[in-house]
Amino acid sequence: MPTPFKRADLQVFGSPLITEADIQEVVDTLRPGWIGTGPNWGMNNEALTGIRGLILPPETAEPGTIHARHLYTVMIEPEVTGLTREEVMGRPKIAGIGTGVHYSASHLHKSYREQFGYIPQDFPNALWVSERTLSLPLSARMTLADAKDVIAALDSTLGR
What we know:
8 helices; mainly alpha; Aspartate Aminotransferase, domain 1
């Protein structure tokens, strides 16, 4: 029988020397406003406020968290707009700006429906969010003009 070894007996190959200062630098980098998408996030929230039937993401992250701000998701209120998310995405001015659907409730996926027999109404809150969430373009490479095009397309499509 082999002799058991202890973790202390192992030689670590390429052990990273990560200091508290290194960790703090990463945390500081993730703070809103430093990363290239931070300014666009704030501008979007300000410019999109008041568009009919559009629920905006919160301006600030939950206490004790840091939001990566890698997606800018809004929710479409079909009860207000008279349009579903898919109908909004299909409108000509919106279709050209590269919107996306980054959230589809898990229980709506084929594998979950088949394996567990889920139907959409099994999780009404997840269904509500899933049917309304729309990702708008957000990138550090977006110019101010690009961001204004997105805002104008939504404003033109949904109105104030």
